[in-house]
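Team,

Forwarding the record for the chain on the shared tracking sheet. I've put the sequence and predicted structure together so nobody has to dig through attachments.
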Amino acid sequence: MMNMVGEPCRLGVPGTGARLRFEMEPRKWGPGPGRRLLVLDGEPAFQLSPWCGTCQFLFQRLEGANQTLSLEGMQERLAGRLSGLDGDVLEAFGSLLPEGDYLPLLLRVEPRLVTPGQEGDYFSGEQVAAWGVDAFWGLPEHPRTPYYRTFETVVDDEAHLYEFVVPMVPPSWNTPERVAEYAEQMPWHSDGPVT
């Protein structure tokens, strides 16, 4: 399947009714903005880095990232391969988001599970090479969750693009039988270990 880009569309829930949204937390002390958060059902789920070209990249799982966003009837619908952008799927998942204009994409990704501090970890590898360790803690940043690395490419002599897929709950919470079933359906599936 090839990657597909849809037409921009309006999705989401008006007001503050969206289950998943971005917020800026007020700063507890001193001037300047507080933490930038991804909020799930009103609870901080992830702390995110500010939109800044001079700041280190960060996502860090917080206590509010404790449930999936599974929707009634969608698990079976998504069990097979999608051949194109599906309006019903877009509308269902759009109902989790704040009202806005979105550009739907259907991407083919080959995720690689990474555990923080182990081989392939962006935070203890590439980020330390570029930025060094955290000045206060003297350690690499730590996302507090395993995550998936997908696409990466060189942009120019001084820039690199990395893509991450960050699960709302740790992969260890997944049902192993369901993971094996999905892995079997992937066209690049091998008989190697499934994670």
